[in-house]
């Protein structure tokens, strides 16, 4: 991805973990807790080094019956921190979760200085 502060291309690599918990109330409402954690490093095309760490907890409800597929979409903001004098930036990323599939899409990046 491109550092929006400098135009430098930054290759990011890391790991992410997600847990989706489903609970059903006596009234039939489905309550979901989604916990996501990600961390990693990056190296820019000009040799600058970056790190990122991200944790998010999201809760949502659904009236879907148990035999229907539940789909969840949310946007997360995570910071990419420069390990040099370069500026830090933020990545806004959308996650889309459906049965058997998790997809990430970068929506935008923003310079934070």
Annotate the secondary structure layout.
Layout (H helix, E strand, L loop, with lengths): L9 E15 L5 E15 L4 E14 L9 E11 L6 E10 L2 E11 L2
Antiparallel strand pairs: 1-2, 2-3, 3-4, 4-5, 5-6
Briefly say what this structure is.
This protein has 113 residues and is mostly beta strands.
* Contiguous uncertain segments of 5+ residues: none
Topology order in helix (H) and strand (E) letters = EEEEEE
Number of domain units: 1
Q: State the end-to-end distance.
A: 17 Å
Mean pLDDT: 85
Q: Helices and strands: which structural class? A: mainly beta
**Residues in helix, %:** under 10%
Topology, number of strands: 6
Cross-sheet strand order for the largest sheet: 1-2-3-4-5-6
Largest sheet: 6 strands, antiparallel
**Quaternary structure state of the chains depicted:** single chain
If helices are DSSP runs of H or I spanning 4 or more residues, what is the number of helices? Answer: 0
Q: Radius of gyration over alpha carbons?
A: 17 Å
Taken as a percent bin, the fraction of beta residues is over 45%
Shape: elongated
């Amino acid at each position: 991805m491109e550092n929006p502060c400098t135009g430098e291309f930054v290759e990011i690599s890391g790991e992410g973990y997600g847990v989706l918990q489903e609970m059903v109330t006596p009234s039939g409402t489905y309550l979901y807790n989604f916990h996501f954690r990600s961390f990693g490093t990056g190296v820019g095309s000009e040799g600058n080094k970056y790190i990122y760490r991200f944790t998010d907890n999201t809760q949502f409800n659904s009236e879907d019956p148990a035999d229907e597929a539940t789909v969840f979409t949310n946007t997360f903001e995570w910071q990419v921190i420069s390990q040099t004098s370069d500026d830090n930036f933020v990545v806004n990323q959308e996650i889309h979760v459906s049965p058997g599939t998790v997809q990430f899409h970068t929506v935008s990046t923003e310079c934070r200085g």
